[in-house]
Design brief:
heterodimer; A: 303 residues; mainly alpha; B: 19% strand
Amino acid sequence: MTMTVSPTNPLLEKLASARELPTIPAVLVPLLRYMEQPSDTLDIQQLVKLISQDKSLAARCLQMANSPLFGCSHEVETIQSAVVALGLNRIQEIAVSCSLLRLLPAVSFGVSPSVFWAHSLACAMVAREFASRIGFSDPAKAYAAGLLHDVGIVALLWVSPHDFRRSFEYGSSRRIPLHEAEERTLGINHSECGKIIATSWHLPADLVEAIACHHSPAKAIGNPRLTSIVSVSDLLCRLGGLGYGYTEDKQTNFAEEPGFAILAAHYRSLHPFDLARFTFETEGLLEEVRAVVARVYGTAQWA
Amino acid sequence: MSLFPSGAAGSAAAAGAAVDPLIQIRDLIYKIVGIFQADNKLRLLEDRCQKRMKALGIPTLRDYFDCLTIKPIRQAEMVSLLNEITIGETCFFRNPPQIDAIRKIVLPKIIEAKSKLALRQLRIWSAGCSTGEEPYTLAMVLLEEQASQLKGWTTEILATDLNERSIAHAKAGSYGDYSTRNVEPLFRGKYFLLSGDKLRVKPEVQSAVTFSRLNLLEDARMLFMKGVDLILCCNVLIYFDAVSKKRVIQHFYTNLLQHGYLFLGHSESLFGVNDDFQLVHLPSCTAYVKSDKRMADQSR
């Protein structure tokens, strides 16, 4: 996909020219780079040091590591022991997830920050699991893409909080998907904003594409499977009650969803696929995400 | 315990002795009866298994898994375990997401489809209604909608069960605290009368439901259940063997109108039972609709 942005909307123009776009949390850069590397080439001590020296990040990571969501069989008290108990990949996922919190404002912006984080975390977990079920080669990448898929909301909020709140209220009062509400009220949606910020952060091209196209996976040309996994996972989370804090009154037939259709064309494992069972499993997972977010972040209004 | 421990379905069983017997029991229940216990409900499932193990004098979960698979009592034991799993589930407003989805999404879709046919009549069937909480809940939901989206519509709720005593209880319409624990105060005042220490559904609710005894496996009578818009069959099919289940689902498919919906119980699935119905996702619940593919085949 092309990395250049040609804004045609005043908000996108504002975003593209904004000198003070939110910067990527410093710790995320090496963490995402590590996630691109094969595990056996990673310097474990370097990773442990990176996380441990950031006290608040380390504390949150340990809370997550000790939650049922990641499932340490015994309580761990240091990042080093968490790596031993859960493995490098899980610790990277946890650290990336906690780093995302750095981007969020402290107060509600229509969507409460904890709801936003819960949705991102849930999408990451579901994307990773769905990816491995269907045979996608890089479930860790699916996790990262799921976690970051909505950074466009952060960007939109940064340049125009008033506009974001307006579209959020439009969507929540009509119970329609947020990206549709944004399109109707602002003429763009957060995935377009996400493309700008993700590009400015120099994220890997397939992550930028997943962020840019998760509401229009047919437009993804670089790694359409990754984008489609995120698209399907995002929808499963929103339908399962972990969206943006309100219920979307819609009926979805996944067989007709573009993302699902793209994956169905690639993977034999989807013929047939027990989506009912996967949905029930996801419901259980979403409950655990709510619980861990409440513990790590504080309680929130779920819907 | 981590989430999604069993990985790809089936891989757990293949791994053999190292697999957690509780996961094996969960997967076995899903395979045989189609009801799924998510990972965060596994502790509850373990409690239910422990109850049965105590009754049978079985020491370990692995022995109990054997009891559910290879012992001669396996079928009877599966029924006993299912009774433990579904115990106490019957109550008014049992599954709020399902009720919300019916009111906000399903009814408008049915109304839209039927308006095109100029048919202002709605037919709902609670198949396996037990002691009547489900059909009476539906009656209250429809009464609430009578002034708005169902204005000018005739509605009919058919409620059937195999058990005569359950039907008699349902017809009496009198319920204790446990059954009515989810009823909001507004609905309690509007649709119930206090009768001693019980709550009795008001006559307008009672008259909205027609109860009768029906065996879902009785083909001749199933054929008469025609022109239905919406079927609810919750925690009933789990007691049927694979062949019977397929037969009942095939009947439901025929009983439903083209735009019709089938709702099963929470975490119940038709995977591997029927390919004609299509799974649809609604907010925090799922349902089945007739697939276009089958209709296209029929019209050829």
